Automatic annotation (TrEMBL):
UniProt KW Magnesium keyword: yes
Annotated gene: aroK
Residues at which Mg(2+) binds: T7
Pathway(s) the chain acts in: Metabolic intermediate biosynthesis; chorismate biosynthesis; chorismate from D-erythrose 4-phosphate and phosphoenolpyruvate: step 5/7
SUPFAM superfamilies (UniProt xref): P-loop containing nucleoside triphosphate hydrolases (SSF52540)
Subunit structure: Monomer.
Protein name: Shikimate kinase
């Protein structure tokens, strides 16, 4: 979900283990020459999800080495992406309650394409969380976002 800390923790984990880090949204933007918000606005969310799937598969297929990828909050919910991600590596769901997510999104000030279309960001986040949770809960590991530390990931990766 937006505000869970995917990019923040992805960068920290990658640095901690000396691994490359890729933010899927940044990868898409770099390849398309437009922000995710622009793409969704210009081509529709459905077309963006097709692009997202294409780039996820390209990214996974382009590396034989270990890499940390932070995907967008909707990525696991479309095009069989969760299954693709689970087959490619370890999938971690950073679970957080609505208050935590909302607080982080408000503090970030980043443009969130699917949240900016409504007058009630909080309501939209709650709706998205309800729709997405069943997909997120298919992850290999479910971690409480507010309680994570690098030690948490040491324990996970120690089991691999």
């Amino acid at each position: 979900m937006p505000g869970a800390g995917k990019t923040y923790w992805g960068r920290r984990i990658a640095a901690h283990y000396g691994l490359p880090f890729i933010d899927l949204d940044e990868y898409i933007s770099s390849n398309e020459g437009k922000s995710v918000a622009q793409l969704i606005q210009e081509v529709s969310e459905e077309t963006f999800r097709d692009l997202e799937n294409k780039y996820l598969i390209r990214l996974i297929g382009s590396t034989d080495n270990r890499v940390v990828i932070a995907c967008g909050g909707g990525t696991p919910c479309f095009s069989g992406n969760m299954r693709t991600m689970k087959m490619a590596g370890i999938v971690v769901y950073l679970e957080a309650d609505l208050e935590y997510l909302y607080s982080n999104v408000q503090r970030d000030g980043d443009i969130r394409p699917l949240l900016g279309k409504t007058t009630s960001v909080r309501y939209q986040m709650e709706r998205l969380l309800q729709l997405r949770r069943p997909y997120y809960e298919q992850a290999h590991y479910i971690l409480q976002a507010k309680d994570i530390s690098l030690t948490t990931f040491d324990e996970i990766l120690g089991n691999v």
